[in-house]
Amino acid sequence: MKRFVIALAILVCGSAGFMPVQAQKEKWNKGILVEEFLYDKAPFPSCHSATLAETPTGLVASFFGGTKERHPDVGIWVCRQLNGAWTAPVEVANGNQEDGSRLPTWNPVLYQIPGGDLMLFYKIGPKPSEWQGWLKTSSDGGATWSEARMLPEGYVGPVKNKPELINGELFCASSTEGDGWKVHFEVTPDFGKTWRKIGPIDKGAENYDAIQPSILKHGNGKLQVLCRSKNRTIVTSWSEDNGRTWSPLEKAELPNNNSGTDAVTMANGRHVLVYNHVLPPGDLAKGPRTPLNVAVSKDGKKWKAALVLEDSPISQYSYPAVIQTSDGMLHFIYTWRRERIKHVVVDPSKMKTKKIKKGEWPGGNPVAGDVQDQEE
Question: Would you state the pLDDT for residue 178?
Answer without folding.
Answer: 87
